[in-house]
Amino acid sequence: MITRMSSLFLRTLREDPADAEVPSHKLLVRAGYVRRIAPGIYSWLPLGYRVLRNVERVVREEMDAIGAQEVHFPALLPKEPYEATGRWTEYGDSLFRLRDRKKADYLLGPTHEELFTLMVKGEYSSYKDYPVILYQIQNKYRDEERPRAGILRGREFVMKDAYSFDLDDEGLKRSYELHREAYVRIFDRLGLEYHVVSAVSGAMGGSASEEFLAPAEVGEDTYVRCLESGYAANVEAVTTPAPPARPVEGLPAAEVHNTPDTPTIQSLVDFLNAAELGRVFTAADTLKNVMVKTRQPGAEEWELLGVGVPGDREVDFKRLEASLAPLEVALLEEADFAANPWLVKGYIGPKALIGRGVRYLVDPRVVPGTAWVTGADQLDHHVVDLVCGRDFTPDGTIEAAEVREGDPSPDGAGPLVMARGIEIGHIFQLGRKYADAMQLDALGPDSKPVRITMGSYGIGVSRAVAAIAEQRHDELGLVWPREIAPADVHVVVAGKDDAVRSGAEGIAAELDAAGVRVLLDDRTVSPGVKFADAELIGVPTILVVGRGLAKGVVEVKDRVTGERAEVAADEVVAHLVSLCRS
Amino acid sequence: MITRMSSLFLRTLREDPADAEVPSHKLLVRAGYVRRIAPGIYSWLPLGYRVLRNVERVVREEMDAIGAQEVHFPALLPKEPYEATGRWTEYGDSLFRLRDRKKADYLLGPTHEELFTLMVKGEYSSYKDYPVILYQIQNKYRDEERPRAGILRGREFVMKDAYSFDLDDEGLKRSYELHREAYVRIFDRLGLEYHVVSAVSGAMGGSASEEFLAPAEVGEDTYVRCLESGYAANVEAVTTPAPPARPVEGLPAAEVHNTPDTPTIQSLVDFLNAAELGRVFTAADTLKNVMVKTRQPGAEEWELLGVGVPGDREVDFKRLEASLAPLEVALLEEADFAANPWLVKGYIGPKALIGRGVRYLVDPRVVPGTAWVTGADQLDHHVVDLVCGRDFTPDGTIEAAEVREGDPSPDGAGPLVMARGIEIGHIFQLGRKYADAMQLDALGPDSKPVRITMGSYGIGVSRAVAAIAEQRHDELGLVWPREIAPADVHVVVAGKDDAVRSGAEGIAAELDAAGVRVLLDDRTVSPGVKFADAELIGVPTILVVGRGLAKGVVEVKDRVTGERAEVAADEVVAHLVSLCRS
């Protein structure tokens, strides 16, 4: 295929678009791959659509290779299945909802667990039918609060979503492993650097789950890695190693101190150290009790929850939310404090909470035998040496404290380092949540129903384009891996005379005949403009046909390494063909 | 590619679905190609999605071949561009509208003229940029009042929409002709029988327009053909040959008759013939005046319009609407008659209308010199011998009367025959409607702006699947043309013994290696079930490997003709490969 720049619907931009902040967004717009239509809603221009379809092809090939079968659901969906699983309300404002002319409720599908479950239920009945893996590549819709970074976080985006259906947990693990391997092959072929990190499943429900994160400064996902062991996890999924419990015998008794005007940890520590109690206190010796409220999704009533974390750490609300999911969580409002006057802001302690029957969860570091400085439940008073397991017994532990660079890896192998990444894939062992909601059973060999167990597996197809652009660009432009580039060779006609032009045309025709995809810059603009556009567009190999042709040479430039080589004009086709096939 | 029925996500049905009335709908559901999700909203199962993608591929190849460039727009679109052209309101209830979390108005795109116009305006500026043809294959949304017949008239459907942008009318004609030729190639490759008929463009605006209609009893479009000349037209586009005007000299004077109790044409004719006026009257001698009201889209006020047609014909409201487009048309309500008491229902005549300044349009057959029996504008009175051009002069003519089988073809070549068809394609010369609305200009060679002229070209991609199924099926099932069939050869393993099974597997593997797409029925069900499913699924060639294999023969069945042939097992691969390539 030869694509001629003289007629290609493409106008590159020299300036970055005003609304773009991240490199992939700037470059994809400047190079004429995408255009903005509305916040988080983009059009694909010819070169961009080619890249998108190339990514789709890679995804499709690897999904087909694990025996997954492609189907296609509508994007416009009736409310009822999503009501059955509660997601009609759980999605909140993120769901695009609409009504048809008969006032029936519809939504634009954010993900299709419900529909796939119902489809399998409609077709399959016997245990002999299973396992089955179905997938689709389709437009998805989420009304993001802050769509950003072009196609990196859009409101309409292309996703591959796959679902596995198995008779038992072992089958689910096999299906999950098949996807994990397919995803590795897909992201390798897409030329992405990525880490597979443990993840919590959030609102999706279910148990085991991993994310494929492409490291990038602009990524929205913070994750940690242990360089020693290779451990990697989403911050929400990091578990805190608990120290061993200690004996309480011999520990000093708890003592309430008048600590006037110490509503913050720092003011408290300063006060205590100034009081010369014979010890030096640090923030890590204090136990900070944060009050939130929780409720079941859709429920009216909130319940109080106390969360105790060491005072040198903040509560990470996303970790807190993930730990409590599917419960909804909110901070207390003034009205809540007014309704519970026994909650003394700045001086809340475990004893009042436990005494009043309020659920109280603590950081895993708060083990029996640890002594804490904490609130004494009255204004300007704290208690010192309040010992866990002796003076108070929490209702359990919770992962809510922030994770920090240098924290120990849960596997004990070394310290954690922090990284940022773009979520490009996510695999879940959903279990029976949707099968339960939709009553998806198979008739077993003993004629008894077997509840099906499911997995769900997503790839952000359009987001992958942005992630690749984010990882593979330089100051001049994009640098596509060949597998998904809009062309194999960008032929620049660098000269106006007929010999150069016809020489370039001849080479392009030969490349085309050999199955090489050619982008031919046959425009009447200056060579400088052509070179700049070639760098910007990012086809992996640039062939410059110019004055050297008279001496029988052309120039081949590797867009990745920047290396230039003079090649004999009569050998360049063979050279490029072998390059493209390697 | 070998697809094994033993693991294919497919369950055929023996019974027609309860909600299906037309053959394509019944068979596509029974054969496991599509499943209903909501009214007019369907999912594609694996075999169905293959067929859909095959149709897409054919469309894409032929669009690319005329130099059209593929882009991809979102389906979720902001209101503003559609407001600029008035279509936000014009579409009425057919438009799916929704609001995002910030209460901004959006719609699900029914067609994308506005967006394409804006995109070209955003990228192009010089006359040197033109012409350009852009297209996309994309989900479209229309909230049909009566979605029906499965995927034949859906509310979410796949459409190829293309748009041409030219500097002048000649360019537009060339682009239009390119599309016409591409459409002929596409529908030929899809194995569709079709007629290209003149069409009016309705709400789309514009001038020349043709529809590609696939003849089918279940089609919603009525059209006419003249077998003698090949003339074909949508009923809305049929023009009525006007008889020559006649001299008014010597015609009897108009005379008002008391015609009590004759509100209908038949009662009037009966009364006049009973009155023995020396002539025999027929309904064709009467002039029926039908009152409607019209207004500009979006306007508040309605205006009265009188439409006069020969009394032996009904007013065809769709023809009337098409003739008056883009005006809105409605029948009069009681309130309208009450507000205009001079309108005497059943006795309305031209004179009162013309006298009151109400616009009055007549059938083209009402030429000067024709004498009519018509209303005398008072209860129980008609006027006889009211002569057009002498006693009344209409404001013009209108194509509003029904078209009937046997009416003369507008080209004078012979009588018209009526047919029903499915609209599978539509090509329009839009002209400058959208370029005007969006101010799409090119800077001409003289530095003056040139307003761009556009064409718009649609193919119902998912509907084409239904149209093919509608035209190509028999009592046993579907009969796909090879180009879009889900497989080339359906291999039926008709026997349980290992020799038969391994023989079939071997042939399937050889076919696969030769690039033939194989659907292999390796299930453990009876041969009868397999044969029935093979007929139902409709792969063009069925290969039966059974007991004959012991004698070295297998059976090849042509699904189209039903012909069966015994072929030597060691020759069948070569035989089938050549069959599939022919």
UniProtKB/TrEMBL annotation, chains A, B:
What catalytic activity is recorded? tRNA(Pro) + L-proline + ATP = L-prolyl-tRNA(Pro) + AMP + diphosphate
Enzyme class (EC, first level):
ligase
Give the subcellular location: Cytoplasm
What single Pfam family name could you report for this chain, choosing any that match? Answer: HGTP_anticodon
Q: What is its main location?
A: cytoplasm
Record InterPro entries: aa-tRNA-synt_IIb, aa-tRNA-synth_II, aa-tRNA-synth_II/BPL/LPL, Anticodon-bd, Anticodon-bd_dom_sf, Pro-tRNA-ligase_IIa, Pro-tRNA-synth_IIa_bac-type, Pro-tRNA-Synthase_IIa_type1
Picking any one GO biological process from the record gives: prolyl-tRNA aminoacylation
Aminoacyl-transfer RNA synthetases class-II family profile domain residues are 35-481
> Which GO molecular function, any one, fits this protein according to its record?
aminoacyl-tRNA deacylase activity
UniProt free text on domains: Consists of three domains: the N-terminal catalytic domain, the editing domain and the C-terminal anticodon-binding domain.
Q: Describe its assembly.
A: Homodimer.
Q: What is the similarity comment for this entry?
A: Belongs to the class-II aminoacyl-tRNA synthetase family. ProS type 1 subfamily.
Q: What does this protein do?
A: Catalyzes the attachment of proline to tRNA(Pro) in a two-step reaction: proline is first activated by ATP to form Pro-AMP and then transferred to the acceptor end of tRNA(Pro). As ProRS can inadvertently accommodate and process non-cognate amino acids such as alanine and cysteine, to avoid such errors it has two additional distinct editing activities against alanine. One activity is designated as 'pretransfer' editing and involves the tRNA(Pro)-independent hydrolysis of activated Ala-AMP.
- Its name, as the record gives it, is Proline--tRNA ligase
Species name for this entry?
A: Streptoalloteichus hindustanus
